[in-house]
Write a structure and sequence with these properties.
about 40% helix, globular, 7 helices, about 20% strand, alpha+beta, disordered N terminus
């Protein structure tokens, strides 16, 4: 299993600009109006809204990224808490975020000879799907396994992106036994 950047950050950045052009709204406002508020995600927003908050955990080892928040628009600029992330993941898999047909397209393997990547999700990870991400020193991973009926999410402000592979394999080996 390999979680390399398949150009996804660039794609998400481009998508955020398309959303703004089509909707005529700022990306974060579109997300809040169409997803976060209707789903009851009250502790989710843009990184720039929380950067001065005492609850915000600063990155430990890559300070150079901490002051370049605009470079992550659409690909790492959303912050949340565990409850809201759980809400998001359950809404995604239950058809409240996108249709079941769109989710099926999202988790269809379009690159079987490479990373087993669908439209925004890595596939065939112990029977589930998910996505790893990293911006500077911040890393995160979300994982959904519909057959086992569980979701998994973690984040760190110290872990390098490549350590996610090892951690995921260890966690899933325990959960799948």
């Amino acid at each position: 299993m390999s979680f390399t950047d398949s150009g996804t950050n660039t794609s998400y950045f481009l998508l955020s600009n398309i959303v703004e052009q089509v909707s005529g709204k700022k990306y974060i406002d579109f997300l809040r109006e169409n997803f976060f508020t209707p789903l009851g995600m009250e502790h989710t927003g843009n990184i720039s809204e929380t950067v001065d908050s005492p609850e915000w955990s600063n990155g430990i080892s890559y300070d150079i990224y901490d002051d370049k928040l605009g470079l992550t628009k659409g690909a790492g600029d959303i912050v949340s808490n565990a409850e809201d992330i759980t809400t998001w993941m359950n809404a995604l898999r239950s058809g409240r975020v996108i249709s079941s047909k769109s989710l099926e397209a999202m988790i269809t393997d379009y690159s079987p000879e490479a990373d087993h990547y669908g439209y925004g999700m890595y596939l065939e990870i112990n029977g589930g799907y998910g996505h790893a991400g990293a911006v500077g020193t911040y890393t995160a991973y979300d994982y959904i396994n519909d057959d086992k009926d569980f979701t998994l999410f973690w984040t760190s402000n110290t872990m390098d992106a490549y350590s996610i592979n090892t951690l995921l394999e260890e966690i899933l080996s325990v959960l799948m036994d």
